[in-house]
């Protein structure tokens, strides 16, 4: 069973980070001229610089953080990470619910944009995992597009196994690393 | 007298080092029928200068020959004499300990901080000199390791007809976690035994998948330095210049140079579809040719030595497996059917076998697949072994493994007899190795 505590901490950190990053991403979006179906001209969503600078800004109380409720497991919009099975890009019903909530949020907030950052666990080769993370991001992107989200509002990038959230070498860690992060 | 004492200290040192080295070597017996390697004696080279010798050539040669899996270097404590010149050789001493071949030599400091090397390779039972040279001058001490690798190369050529291996280098990526600023990625180039690492590219963004051009002029690699999508960059070895190639929209993975050093095969995602492409990085508009067309993800292209076909990894069957496609395109042929997953394959220099990462239910291990009998030999025992790369003439495979969340590089002899772990700086996690072509074939004598 997944341990709730690390997950909660991770979710909280993810919410703070993505919340902080939102302003920058919105600025970036203005520079995008067309939907790039290659999908990979995303911004610095996974850059190491993001983490440090976002934390330093410390403006956790911006609009997005206000929108999302404190109830991390009740409101799908408060979830920013969807998880996958081993070597799979299939979304679970729960993951779909989360993605659909973000899609609806994006439709009602057309000036928002996000990055779908795909990740894989360390099993399998690095190169294959880059492709796998990408196909997970694509699977999430397709739901957004299917619900009518503007192509300009989403971009995808994969880091494969390069950026694990849990460095342990066991199924609990791997299940947290097989993910797509929805980064506003 | 001084020399004898020095020699004694020297022998003690070697003796002290040996158990460690032997313990570090894990022998995986693949078939149980491989037998032993050729017994050979490598006498510590005599140093005719003051103090300790600048480099222990015999130790480097011993490590090289052992790593190849083709030799059993006899322990120095068994040597009944220690010649440094052919006039001192007593063949009976070596026949008695069943050494089939003998290496010895000496180093002498000469004016101008230069060193004179002399070495010889003898057939012990034929009582015949089969290699070596006299009075070769080395201008810099840093060149001594290279000379040792050339001695190893000459030895394997004369004794087993094997092409040179050791006068080569390796490129790989190391990641260092720095508390204040996150990960730091380095692209490094080191000697074929992991010594003398040189940092060639450094970035806080992800670096991966280095690939040597066969002419050794370039190393292609993947970089996330644009912070948008991964692109392929080329490092020019002579100048250190780094240039972006494949400047297309979309994310580029897994570059691989063609045997003629003219084209780069790579995995490129265009229109949400990842396929294998061929790129001409030297033409002005960088001509791009699409090689595969499939909705599944195709990656890790790798050229056949004759340049007429490529291997790649695709999950078109549901799980990653190895496929082969002609360089002119057409229908890919699936190569691997055994095991749950097989990926990142490459040919040996003779194109008789393919090395790959295989998962047969025990995690990711390095396997060598014979194209003739379709059998897979598993060479490693880890669960997260990957990125295998053949030595220039195929007697060894360099790969990465993981222990305690960190990646390391190891070399396994292709016959499975010896595994050699490489040492890295504390805190470094090193992966994605690429064994270079030979530095200079002509110089190996």
How would you describe what is shown here?
- The complex is a heterodimer of chains A (184) and B (445).
- A four-stranded mixed β-sheet of chain A has the order 1-4-2-3.
- Chain A has helices at residues 4-29, 48-57, 63-67, 93-108, 126-146, 171-177; strands at residues 81-83, 114-119, 154-160, 179-183.
- Chain A has one domain: OmpA-like domain (60s Ribosomal Protein L30, Chain: A), CATH 3.30.1330.60.
- Mean pLDDT of chain A is 72; it is low at 11-72.
- Chain A is 46% helix and 11% strand.
- With 184 residues, chain A is α+β, with helices and mostly antiparallel strands.
- Chain B is mainly beta and 445 residues long.
- Chain B folds into two domains: 2-160, TolB, N-terminal domain (Rossmann fold), CATH 3.40.50; 168-443, Neuraminidase, CATH 2.120.10.
- Chain B is 13% helix and 43% strand.
- Chain B has helices at residues 2-24, 57-67, 91-96, 144-160, and strands at residues 38-42, 46-47, 71-73, 101-110, 114-123, 128-138, 168-178, 182-191, 198-203, 207-212, 218-223, 231-236, 242-245, 251-257, 264-270, 273-279, 288-290, 298-303, 309-314, 321-326, 333-334, 341-347, 353-359, 364-370, 376-378, 386-390, 396-403, 406-413, 419-421, 428-438.
- In chain B, strands 1, 2, 3, 4, 5 and 6 form a six-stranded mixed β-sheet that branches. Chain B has a four-stranded antiparallel β-sheet with strand order 9-8-7-30, with no helix packed on it. Chain B has a four-stranded antiparallel β-sheet with strand order 10-11-12-13, with no helix packed on it.
- In chain B, a hairpin with a 6-residue loop joins strand 19 (309-314) and strand 20 (321-326).
- Chain B is globular and about 70 Å long.
- Chain A binds chain B through residues 36-44, 46-49, 51-52, 87, 122-128, 130-132, 134-135, 138, 141, 157-159, 162, 167-169, and chain B through 181-183, 204-206, 208-209, 224, 227-230, 249-251, 253-254, 267, 269-272, 274, 297, 299-300, 313, 315, 319-320, 341, 343-344, 357, 359, 363-364, 384, 386-387, 402, 405, 431-432.
């Amino acid at each position: 069973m997944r341990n709730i505590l690390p997950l909660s901490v991770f979710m909280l950190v993810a919410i703070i980070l993505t919340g902080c990053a939102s302003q920058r991403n919105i600025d970036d979006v203005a520079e995008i001229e067309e939907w790039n179906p290659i999908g990979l001209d995303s911004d610095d969503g996974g850059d190491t610089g993001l983490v440090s600078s976002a934390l330093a800004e410390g403006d956790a109380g911006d609009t997005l953080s206000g929108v999302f409720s404190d109830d991390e497991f009740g409101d799908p919009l408060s979830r920013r990470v969807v998880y996958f099975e081993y070597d799979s890009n299939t979304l679970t019903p729960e993951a779909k619910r989360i993605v659909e909530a973000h899609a609806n949020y994006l439709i009602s907030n057309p000036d928002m944009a996000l990055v779908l950052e795909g990740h894989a666990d360390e099993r399998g080769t690095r190169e294959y995992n880059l492709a796998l993370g990408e196909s997970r991001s694509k699977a999430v992107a397709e739901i957004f597009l299917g619900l009518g989200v503007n192509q300009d509002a989403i971009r995808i990038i994969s880091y494969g196994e390069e950026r694990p959230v849990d460095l342990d070498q066991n199924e609990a860690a791997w299940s947290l690393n097989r993910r797509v992060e929805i980064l506003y | 007298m001084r020399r004898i004492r020095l020699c004694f200290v020297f022998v003690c040192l070697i003796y002290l080092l040996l158990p460690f080295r032997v313990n570090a070597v894990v022998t995986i017996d693949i078939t149980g029928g491989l037998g032993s390697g050729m017994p050979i004696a490598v006498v510590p080279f005599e140093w005719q200068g003051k103090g300790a010798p600048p480099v222990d050539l015999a130790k480097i040669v011993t490590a090289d020959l052992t790593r190849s899996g083709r030799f059993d270097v006899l322990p120095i404590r068994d040597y009944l004499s220690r010649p440094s010149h052919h006039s001192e050789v007593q063949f009976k001493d070596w026949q008695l300990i069943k050494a089939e071949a003998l290496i010895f030599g000496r180093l002498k400091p000469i004016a101008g901080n230069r060193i004179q090397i002399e070495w010889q390779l003898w057939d012990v039972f034929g009582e015949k000199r089969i290699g070596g040279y006299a009075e070769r001058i080395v201008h810099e001490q840093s060149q001594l390791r290279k000379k040792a690798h050339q001695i190893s190369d000459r030895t394997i050529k004369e004794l087993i007809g094997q092409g040179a291996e050791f006068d080569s280098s390796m490129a790989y990526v190391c990641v260092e976690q720095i508390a204040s600023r996150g990960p730091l990625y380095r692209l490094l180039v080191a000697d074929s035994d992991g010594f003398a690492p040189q940092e060639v590219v450094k970035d806080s963004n992800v670096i991966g998948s280095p690939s040597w051009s066969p002419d050794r002029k370039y190393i292609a690699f993947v970089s996330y330095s644009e912070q948008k999508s991964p692109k392929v960059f080329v490092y020019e070895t002579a100048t250190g210049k780094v240039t972006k190639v494949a400047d297309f929209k979309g994310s580029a993975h897994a570059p691989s140079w063609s045997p003629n050093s003219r084209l780069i095969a790579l995995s490129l995602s265009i229109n949400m579809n990842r396929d294998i492409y061929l790129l001409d990085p030297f033409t002005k508009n960088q001509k791009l040719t699409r090689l595969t067309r499939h909705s599944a993800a195709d990656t890790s292209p790798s050229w056949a030595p004759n340049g007429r076909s490529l291997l790649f990894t695709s999950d078109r069957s549901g799980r990653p497996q190895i496929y082969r496609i002609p360089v002119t395109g057409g229908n890919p042929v699936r190569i691997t059917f055994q095991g749950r997953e097989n990926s990142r394959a490459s040919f040996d220099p003779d194109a008789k076998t393919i090395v790959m990462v295989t998962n047969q239910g025990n995690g990711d291990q390095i396997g060598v697949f014979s194209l003739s009998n379709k059998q897979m030999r598993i060479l490693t025992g880890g669960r997260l072994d990957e990125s295998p790369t053949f030595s220039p003439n195929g007697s060894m495979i360099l790969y990465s493994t993981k222990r305690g969340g960190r990646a390391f590089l190891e070399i396994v002899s292709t016959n499975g007899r010896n595994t050699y772990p490489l040492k890295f700086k504390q805190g470094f996690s090193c992966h994605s190795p690429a064994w270079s072509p030979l530095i200079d074939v002509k110089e190996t004598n």
